[in-house]
Amino acid sequence: MSLDIMVWVILFALLLLGVPVFAALGTATLVALMMSGIPLSIIPLDLYKVSEMFPLIAVPAFILAGSIMERGGMAKQIVDVAAIFVGRMRGGYGIVTIIGCMFFAAMIGSGPGTVAAMGTLMIPSMVREGYSKDYAAGVCCTGGTLGILIPPSNPMIVYGVIANVSISGMFIAGLVPGFLVSFALMITAYIIARKKGFKGSDKVYTPKEALSIIKNSFWALMAPVVILGGIYSGIFTPVEASIIAVVYSLIVGTLINRQISLKGLIDCFRMTNSATGTVLIVVGVSMLFGRFLTMNQVPQRLASWVMSISTDPITVLLMIVVFLFFLGMFMETLATIVIVTPVVLPLLMELGINPIHFGIIFVMTNELALLSPPLGVNLFVAMGISGLSLERVAKASIPYMVALMICTIIVVRFPEIALYLPRIFGFGQ
Q1: Distance of CA 419 to the CA centre of its chain
Q2: Which pTM does this prediction carry?
Q3: Residue 390 contacts by C-beta under 8 Å, 6 or more apart in sequence?
Q4: Which of 259, 367, 379, 419 is least surrounded by CB atoms within 10 angstroms?
Q5: How many angstroms separate the Cα of 14 from the Cα of each of 233, 285, 378?
């Protein structure tokens, strides 16, 4: 057995046994380095490089900001405003949930975090309004996938660091696909609600009530404008935007909404520490794994093999999408990004595929992974909130997965959907 094959066997065997991703990556890489005679002194050097990756500072900051926003009542305010406009439609509460996910995604950059915030609010509300638990859980766990597509997105930040592409460019590229997927999910929610006979809310808002809700929710609605507007206008970088998001959420949650206590703030920091540690240690060992791949010319050999099958960029992208879909069933989003990106990116560059375009496709494929058993994280979050079995939540999400697949194929076939805005802003290649 060659060294390359042995390393991949060790890696996937450890992952199937339930070993944490960072430990599986680190063990496989350590074995490879020892057997290839490469000095182990490169390990601390590569791990130290992670501390020099300035863009990664944005990850813990956005996680902290999202936690504070959820506890500070901003998620509920966004839902209240959406209910004014679409709550009375057939399936209105499902559409409200997706709109709420859009806004919350534009503030925190996390898929499971978006599900947790919206699911806690909307699943009980939908059940009270006569919707089935299955429908409510399906809408929440699929709407939560927008958390990694609509910028800011933590997976986009990690991809930008590893692929050495502009994170601002990735954020801008995610806007149009994000709205495309959001619209597709809303249409799906409406069709299912119509088929099952779920009606909208009976609540009729007077102009005075509607204006009062909008007025009270003004600062929550302004959060995406401040965060994304500052990035796209060039006022601050994505890293600076993440810090602005933390400060903004603290001000709104403590001084305006007055819903965050000292204990609640400490809980936010604890959750952020736990989530951040997971991200950074995976990125750290991925640097080592990428070093092994480069030294053994794995990307070059993969390119030769794929190009022996087809040199058409669209065909190659569709092959990679299928591969990523199945890989996502067994691997966490960030782990997939850090393992696959160094392998396939040289191939894509050789075929003339824009790395920003591929980054968006990669994230959209990972949206499907968040809904794919046995590892679909969003399914488990929705399962915990709704009390349903994994099978029922997964079944409820299938129609939305079909909509996501169609959107992914559209973006693969028409690259300008992802690249038009980056080129306008000067990030195109």
Answers
A1: 19
A2: 0.79
A3: 373, 379, 380, 383
A4: 259
A5: 45, 15, 23
User: Residue with structure tokens 């801008």?
Assistant: 172
Cβ neighbors of 166 (< 8 A, separation 6 or more) are 160, 356, 427
Average of per-residue pLDDT across 405-412 = 95
b/e string for 94-125 if b means 16 or more Cβ within 10 A? bbbbbbbbbbbbbbbbbbbbbbbbbbbbbbeb
Are the CB atoms for 115 and 86 separated by under 8 Å? no
Pairwise CA distance, residues 67 & 260, whole Å: 11
How far is the C-alpha of 219 from the C-alpha of 257, rounded, in Å?
9
Place of tokens 């406009």: 85
Mean pLDDT rounded to a whole number for the chain: 83
> 411: closest CA among 187, 228, 181?
181
CB 106 within 8 A of CB 151: yes
Please tell me the predicted confidence (pLDDT) of residue 188.
94
State pLDDT tens for residues 114-141.
887 788 778 888 888 788 999 999 998 8
Measure the CA–CA gap between 290 and 282, rounded to whole angstroms. Answer: 12
**CB half-sphere exposure, 91, CA atoms < 13 A:** 20
Residue 294 confidence (pLDDT): 67
The dihedral formed by the CA atoms of 410, 415, 419 and 420, expressed in degrees to the nearest 10: -80
Angstrom distance (rounded) from CA 199 to CA 201: 7
Positive or negative, the CA dihedral 6, 44, 154, 253 is positive
DSSP class of residue 57 equals: G
Residue 242 tokens, joined? 């993440």
The residue among 388, 399, 264, 339 whose CA lies nearest residue 12 is: 339
Task: Summarize pLDDT for 237-266 with one digit per residue, the tens.
Answer: 888 888 898 899 899 988 898 888 888 888
Q: What SS3 state is found at 259?
A: coil
- Which of these, 330, 337, 356, lies nearest to 286 by C-alpha position? 337
End-to-end CA distance of the chain: 41
**What's 255's DSSP letter?**
I
Q: What is the DSSP letter of 256?
A: I
Q: Is the pLDDT of residue 58 over 60?
A: yes
Helix orientation angle between 333-350 and 262-295, rounded to the nearest 10 degrees: 40
Which 8-state DSSP code applies to residue 37?
T
Q: How far apart are CA 299 and CA 163, in angstroms?
A: 13
Q: Which amino acid is it at 209?
A: E
Q: Using an 8 Å Cβ cutoff, are 77 and 216 in contact?
A: yes
- How far is the C-alpha of 273 from the C-alpha of 180, rounded, in Å? 33
d(CA 277, CA 46): 17
